[in-house]
C-alpha cells in the first residue's frame, strides 16, 4: 500500500516559438509564452510521479490560476494521507471536493493529479504505465501535423513540411476566417493528397453554415470534420450528420464516459476525440476510449498543446488504445523548451516513447525554477 505524502504544484510559463490560434482565439503566443502547470505527487515509499495541466480559457473555463487553486485548496487537503494506489477512491474524493454539474468539475486540474498518480504507481511497480493496464502493445503512435493559419500559401507550405517530415496526417484548424476555410483546405489537399485529413472547427459554426461547409469538405476529400457546432448542441450535430456524409467527430462536446453515452444516444457523431486532460486524466480517458470503441464509434486522439510530459503521457494511452488514425499531439512543436530532460519525442511523424518505468519523463529542477510563474 502506498499513501500520498505530498502534492506540489508548479505553475510555469514556457517559451513559445510560434503563436497558436484556433477559431476561439490565441491560446499562447511568443511574447507571453504558454501557461502550463506541473504537478508532483510523492508517496510514503519515496516514489514520485509527475503530471501536467495545460489550461486555456479560450478552450474551456479552466485557467492556470483555477488549476492551482483547485489542487492546492481542495484536492491536496483531501488527498494527502489517502492511498495513492487506489485510483477509484482518489477520483471519488476529487469529485466529492469539486463536484460536476452539467460538466465534470475542473477535469484539467484533476487530470494532472491523476497522471502523476499513474506515474507514481507504475514507477513503484517498476512498470511502464501501460503495464498497469496489462498491456505491452507495440502499436505505433502516428501523429498528424497541425496547420493553423488564414493564409492559403502558408497552409500549402506547412502541408509540404508535413509530407517531407514523414507525417501520415494533417489536422487543419478552420473557422479562424470562415470566408476562406475552403481555400485553406484545398491548398493543403493539393500538397498532401494522400495524408489522413482532419479539420477542426472548434465550435465555430451554426448549423446552416456547417451544412454548406461539410459539403465543400466532402468535395475536396476531407476524412473527418471535428466539432463544427457549439459544444452543447448534440441534437444539431445529429441533424448535421443526417444532411451530410462526411464523418463528424466530437471533441469539446464530450468530457466523460457519460458524455460518450449521451453522444451515442443522440446519434450526434461518428467519432469521439480522446484527450486525457479534458477527461480527468488517464483513468477517465481510457474508459471513454474503451466505451467508444466497444460501441462502434471511431476514435481520434488529441491534446491541449501540453509540453513533452503531457505529450508522452497521452502517447502511452493512444498506444494502449491502438488508435489507427494519426493523433493530434502537437504541443512540443510550439515550445522552445520545457522541463523534460532527454530526447525529442517525435521521429518520422511518430511519437517516441521513453524506456523505463512510469510515464518515463525526467523533470529538471533547474528548468522548473527557470520557468516558474506566479500562481495568482
Ligand atoms: Mg479539437
Automatic annotation (TrEMBL):
InterPro entries: Dipeptide_epimerase, Enolase-like_C_sf, Enolase-like_N, Enolase_C-like, Mandel_Rmase/mucon_lact_enz_CS, Mandelate_racemase_C, Mandelate_racemase_N_dom. CDD domains: L-Ala-DL-Glu_epimerase. Residues 152-247 form the Mandelate racemase/muconate lactonizing enzyme C-terminal domain. Keywords: Isomerase, Magnesium, Metal-binding. It is an enzyme of class 5 (isomerase). Transmembrane segments: none annotated. Signal peptide: none annotated. Its cofactor is Mg(2+). Pfam families: MR_MLE_C, MR_MLE_N. SMART domains: MR_MLE (SM00922). Coiled coil: none annotated. Binds 1 Mg(2+) ion per subunit. Its EC number is 5.1.1.-. Belongs to the mandelate racemase/muconate lactonizing enzyme family. This is Dipeptide epimerase. It comes from Paenibacillus thermoaerophilus.
Amino acid at each position: 500500500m502506498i499513501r500520498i505524502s505530498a502534492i506540489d504544484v508548479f505553475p510555469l510559463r514556457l517559451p513559445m516559438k510560434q503563436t497558436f490560434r484556433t477559431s476561439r482565439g490565441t491560446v499562447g503566443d511568443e511574447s507571453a509564452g504558454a501557461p502550463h502547470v506541473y504537478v508532483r505527487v510523492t508517496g510514503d515509499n519515496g516514489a514520485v510521479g509527475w503530471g501536467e495541466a495545460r489550461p486555456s480559457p479560450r478552450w474551456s473555463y479552466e485557467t492556470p490560476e483555477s488549476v492551482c487553486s483547485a489542487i492546492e485548496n481542495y484536492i491536496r487537503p483531501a488527498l494527502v494521507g489517502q492511498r495513492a494506489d487506489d485510483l477509484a477512491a482518489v477520483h471519488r474524493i476529487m469529485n466529492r471536493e469539486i463536484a460536476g454539474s452539467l460538466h465534470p468539475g475542473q477535469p484539467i486540474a484533476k487530470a494532472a493529479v491523476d497522471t502523476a498518480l499513474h506515474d507514481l504507481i507504475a514507477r513503484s511497480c517498476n512498470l511502464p504505465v501501460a503495464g498497469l493496464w496489462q498491456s505491452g502493445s507495440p502499436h505505433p503512435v502516428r501523429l498528424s501535423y497541425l496547420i493553423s493559419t488564414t493564409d492559403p500559401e502558408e497552409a500549402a507550405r506547412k502541408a509540404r513540411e508535413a509530407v517531407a517530415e514523414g507525417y501520415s496526417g494533417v489536422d487543419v484548424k478552420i473557422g479562424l476566417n470562415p470566408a476562406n476555410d475552403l481555400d485553406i483546405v484545398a491548398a493543403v489537399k493539393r500538397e498532401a493528397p494522400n495524408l489522413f485529413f482532419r479539420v477542426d472547427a472548434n465550435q465555430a459554426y451554426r448549423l446552416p453554415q456547417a451544412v454548406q461547409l461539410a459539403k465543400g469538405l466532402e468535395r475536396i476529400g476531407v476524412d473527418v470534420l471535428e466539432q463544427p457546432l457549439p459544444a452543447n448542441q448534440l441534437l444539431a450535430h445529429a441533424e448535421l450528420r443526417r444532411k451530410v456524409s462526411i464523418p463528424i467527430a466530437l471533441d469539446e462536446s464530450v468530457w466523460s464516459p457519460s458524455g460518450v453515452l449521451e453522444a451515442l444516444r443522440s446519434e450526434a457523431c461518428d467519432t469521439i476525440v480522446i484527450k486525457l486532460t479534458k477527461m480527468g486524466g488517464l483513468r477517465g480517458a481510457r474508459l471513454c476510449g474503451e466505451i467508444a470503441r466497444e460501441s462502434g464509434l471511431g476514435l481520434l486522439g488529441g491534446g491541449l498543446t501540453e509540453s513533452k510530459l503531457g505529450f508522452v503521457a497521452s502517447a502511452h494511452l493512444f498506444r494502449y488504445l491502438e488508435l489507427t488514425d494519426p493523433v493530434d499531439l502537437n504541443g512540443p512543436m510550439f515550445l522552445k523548451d520545457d522541463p523534460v530532460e532527454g530526447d525529442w519525442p517525435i521521429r518520422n511523424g511518430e511519437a517516441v516513447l521513453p524506456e523505463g518505468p512510469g510515464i518515463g519523463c525526467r523533470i529538471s529542477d533547474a528548468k522548473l525554477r527557470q520557468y516558474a510563474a506566479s500562481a495568482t
